[in-house]
Amino acid sequence: xxxxxxxxxFLGSAMLxxxxxxHPEQELGLLIRDSKGSxxxxxxxxxxxxALGRERAERESGRVRVVAGDLVEENxxxxxxxxxxxxxxxxxxxxxxxxxxxxQTIAEAREINLRGTESLLxxxxxxxxxxxxxxxxxxxxxxxxxxxxxxxxxxxxFRNTYEQSKAEAxxxxxxxxxxxxxLVVFRPSIIVGDSKTGETTSFNVIYAPSKMLIKxxxxxxxxxxxxxxxxxxxxxxxxxxxxxxxxxxxxxSYTSLHVCSGVGREASIKxxxxxxxNAFNKFSAxxxxxxxxxxxxxxxxxxxxxxxxxxxxxxxxxxKNIERFLERNIPFIGHLLPYxxxxxxxxxxxxxxxxxxxxxxxxxxxxxxxYADKVFGYCFATDWGKRxxxxx
Length: 392
What we know:
Elements: E1 2-5, H1 10-22, E2 28-32, H2 40-52, H3 54-60, E3 64-68, H4 80-89, E4 92-95, H5 106-113, H6 115-126, E5 132-136, E6 148-149, H7 161-175, E7 182-188, E8 190-192, H8 207-214, E9 220-221, E10 228-229, E11 231-233, H9 234-245, E12 254-259, E13 267-268, H10 269-288, E14 297-298, H11 301-317, H12 319-329, H13 337-344, E15 348-349, H14 352-358, H15 368-381
C-alpha cells in the first residue's frame, strides 16, 4: 500500500489520479484526520469525488482506503496494534501534508511540518528498510541564499517559519534515511493554479498581494520590479512528482529534485503585475464595459534600500521592529509583510537533475506569462474562491 498524507490539500488532491494510474496494482491509503462536522472517511470520499469525478471515484473506491488518523497525534491516534499493522502493509510513504502559513510561530509551524514528518518516520522505522519515502518539501528551504542553488542545498537563514520548519523536516529525514528503503525529496517552487483552467483551492503567495492590488489596498508596489519568482502550475508539479516518485531507486539512495520553472524561466515581479493588470482589465471590460486598473508604481530605489534594511534588522530584533518601522514610514506595506521578502530578491533553482531524470517525457514547466490569464481569470470569476465558477 502507498500511504499518502495531505490528500485533502491543493497538491495532494491533484496527484491522486496520476498516482492511481502509475500504481495500478497498489492500494492507496489516504491518511485523513477528522474535522468539525466530518470524519476522516467522509472527507476522503469527498476529496476523491472532487479530484477524480464521481464516476471514476466510485470505480476506484475498492483500491482506496481511508486511514482516519491525525499526523500530530501519537501513532496517528491509532492503537499500537493497528499502527504496527499499517506499517507492515505500507510499501511507500508519500508525505504531502504541510502547513504553508507564513505567519505562524515556529512552534506552530513545527507542529505539522516537523512533528508530522517525525510521525511518518516512526511508522517507517517499524518496517525498517522496506518503506520508500517520498517527501514534498519546498524549493524555498534555500531561505536567504543567493544565486543559483542545487536541490540538495539547505539555507542557514530563513524568511519565515514555513521555510525553517520545512528545512528542519528535510534534515530529519536525511539524518534517519538508514531506516528507509530509499528517500526522494521533491522541492516545488511557488505553485499556482492549473495551467489550462486556472483552478486552485489555495490562494497564497502571489495570490494575496495580487488581491490586495486589485482591491485598491495599495498603488505603490514594495518590491524590486526585476526580482524573479519561480512559479509553476499545479498540474505540471503533480505530473512530474507522480512520474518520478514511481521510479525504482537503488536501495539506501537519497535523491533531491527541484520541481520548478528553473533558471531563466522565472517571471519577474513586473511581468507578474503586468499579467495581473491585463487580465483584470480584460475581465473588467467583459463584465462592466470598462477598464479600471492602472499599472502601479514601484517604490524608489532609496525606499527599497530602507525596506531591505528594516527586514535585515527584523531578523536580529524580531518582527515587531519591522512592524514599527512600517507603521511610521510606509504603513500600507504592513498588510504585505509576509510577502515582501519574495518581492525583493530570491534564489534561483537548478533543475538540471530533474530534467535529466524526466528525459524526453517532459518539456520544462510552461512560462507563467503563457497561462497567467487562466490563473488570474479564475480568481476574478470566482471572487478569489468565494463562489463556484459555474455561477458566474
